Each structure stands twice: as structure tokens, then as C-alpha cells.
Amino acid sequence: MTSAPLERSSPPRPSNTPHRRVVSDAARVDVPAAEVAVRALLTALGQDPASEHLRDTPRRVAAAYAEMLTPEAFTLTTFGNDEGYDELVLARDLPFQSLCEHHLLPFSGIAHIGYLPGSRILGLSKLARVLDCFARGLQVQERLTKQVADCLHQSLQPKGVAVVLEAAHQCMSLRGVRAHGSRTVTSALHGLLRDNAATRSEFFALTGVGR
Ligand code: ZN
């Protein structure tokens, strides 16, 4: 199982490293092979892939999966925390989407990502980039949550990290229990955001999780 994005550079670097490349080792999508497979799937589903309406569908589906499963590598640039800012930094309501590895159906929602700075701080857009990088793969929500938290914990070495994802899963709303409108909440906490009750409560109060 190599489809989930993982960080390649496993040993944590010193927290004074300003540029850290985040590279996913998500499997490469073989687009022509995916087109052949979609054509076979249509046939297996009793459809005629040669019909006028479906002729272009294999190409479109393969391209859509290639886009959803190909993460963009990026550089996680950090800056010295020269002002000694030591309060919570929180990005709230970051939209994300991913694909459930059990049904190949999308799940999507919002993320709240917070950290307590140590000696380095991060460009705020990078929180969304980390999330997007790990979301582009076949995932389960629990693993995605943990991968984002672990990546920030290792590359930024902050005093604490907290990641909460709230998502609706199409495999729960379109089939099976058909639980329309239900949202699944997962969290992963490190450092003071896990161990200090006051800091943890502040994070959850600011995110509004559990409203
Ligand atoms: Zn599913």
C-alpha cells in the first residue's frame, strides 16, 4: 500500500532549518492505464463506453483521479520567531477534500490547525499547503489528521500542535447508512496542546468544535 502520502525525510531536522522540502511519495498515476481501467469498469457496470455520451468519460475520469491523487511538493519555509510570540497561532476553517481509500469517494470539510510557536514560525499559507499535500491521496480521515500534525511537529518543532478535521464522507451519505448531513470529527494533538488542559481548551474554544 503505497498510495498514502508520507514524508520522505523522516529524521527531524533541527528547528533552525529555514527551508524544508515536503515531498509526498504518493504513487504515480498511470493515466493511460487508468483510462483503460475506467473503460473496463463502464463495461462491467453494463454501460457502453463506445456510446456517444461515454466516449470521453474514461479520459475525463482518469484525469480527475490523477489530479486528486497527485500532491504538489513544496518548500516549508520557516522564520525565526524574533519577537518571541508565544500565543496560539490558529488557522480556522481551512477547506480540504480527499478521497476515501475504501470506496474511492470524496470526503470534504474544514480543518483547524493551530500551533504554539517555539523558536520558528511558519508562513500561514503553508498550513493549508501541508493539508493539501497529504489530502491528495487515498486516505482515511484519521490518518490524514495525524500526518498533518506529525509533519508540523517534526518540521517546525513548536511547543505544541493541534489539528482538527471535520468532514462529510460521501460513502456515508450516498450509500450504506445514507447518513446525510453527518460530519466526522478527528483530532491529533502534540506537545502542550495535548498535555496542558488550559491550552487545549483555548484551542477548542477558538475553533468552535463542539458548538
Ligand atoms: Zn468510504
Structural class: alpha+beta
CATH architecture title of the largest domain: 2-Layer Sandwich
As for the number of domains, it is 2
The average pLDDT value, as a whole number, equals 89
What's the level 1 CATH class of the largest domain? Alpha Beta
Discrete helix count: 7
The CATH topology assignment of the largest domain is GTP Cyclohydrolase I, domain 2
Query: Roughly what percent helix?
Result: 25-40%
Radius of gyration: 20 Å
State the separation between the terminal residues, measured CA to CA: 37 Å
**Uncertain segments:** 1-15
Identify the CATH homologous superfamily of the largest domain. GTP cyclohydrolase I, C-terminal domain/NADPH-dependent 7-cyano-7-deazaguanine reductase, N-terminal domain
β-strand percent reads 25-35%
Bulk shape = elongated
Strands of the widest sheet, in order across it, are: 6-3-4-7-8
Please give a structural write-up:
- The protein is an alpha+beta fold and 211 residues long.
- The protein is built from seven helices and eight strands, in the order βααββββαβαβαβαα.
- Helix content is 34%, strand content 27%.
- The strands form two sheets. The chain has a five-stranded mixed sheet with strand order 6-3-4-7-8, sandwiched between helices. Strands 1-2-5 form a three-stranded antiparallel sheet.
- Strand 3 (89-100) and strand 4 form a beta hairpin.
- Helix 3 crosses helix 4.
- Zinc ion is lined by residues 100, 102-103, 105, 169, 171.
- Zinc ion (ZN) binds at residues 100, 102-103, 105, 169, 171.
